[in-house]
Amino acid sequence: MQKIISKMAPKFPILIWMGFMMVALTFVIGFFNSQTAAAYFSESKAIRETTLLAERAAIQSTNLWLPYFKFLGLGMVLGGIVMALRVILDNLMQAGGKVLA
C-alpha cells in the first residue's frame, strides 16, 4: 500500500487543480441557477404554477446535486494537500537517508 501511495503522491497538483476546477464550476452553475430562479420568481404566481414547471424542476434538481459536487471538489483539494505533504515527507526521508549513508 505504501508503494502505491508513493507512486500516486507526486501527482498531487493534478488532484488539486481538478478540485479547484470543480469548485469553480459549481460557482458558475450556482450563478446561472440563481438567474433562473430570479426569472422564475419574477413571474406572477398564476403563471408560475401553470407554465413554468420545467424551470422549477431545473432549479430544484440543481439544488439537489450541486452541494455534493462542491464537497467532492473540496475533498479533492484536501486530498491533494495530503499528497503534497506525503511528497515532502518522502523527500525528507530520502535526504535523511543520504545524510546517514
Description:
With 101 residues, the chain is mainly alpha-helical. The chain has one domain (2-100). Helices cover 91% and strands 0% of the residues. The chain has helices spanning 2-8, 12-42, 45-50, 53-100. The protein is rod-shaped. The model has no long low-confidence stretch (mean pLDDT 91). The chain crosses the membrane at residues 12-32, 71-89. Keywords: Membrane, Transmembrane, Transmembrane helix.
Write the layout of secondary structure elements.
Elements: H1 2-8, H2 12-42, H3 45-50, H4 53-100
Helix pairs in contact: 2-4
Radius of gyration: 23 Å
Low-confidence residue ranges: none
Helix content: over 70%
Query: Count of DSSP E strands?
Result: 0
Biggest β-sheet, characterized?
none
- Summing up helix and strand content along with how strands pair, one would put the structural category as mainly alpha
Average pLDDT across residues? 91
What separation lies between the terminal Cα atoms? 26 Å
**Integer count of domains:** 1
Strand content: under 5%
Keywords: Membrane, Transmembrane, Transmembrane helix
Transmembrane segments: 12-32, 71-89
Short synopsis of the structure:
With 101 residues, the chain is an all-alpha fold.
Any key phrases for this structure?
single chain; 101 residues; mainly alpha; 4 helices; 91% helix
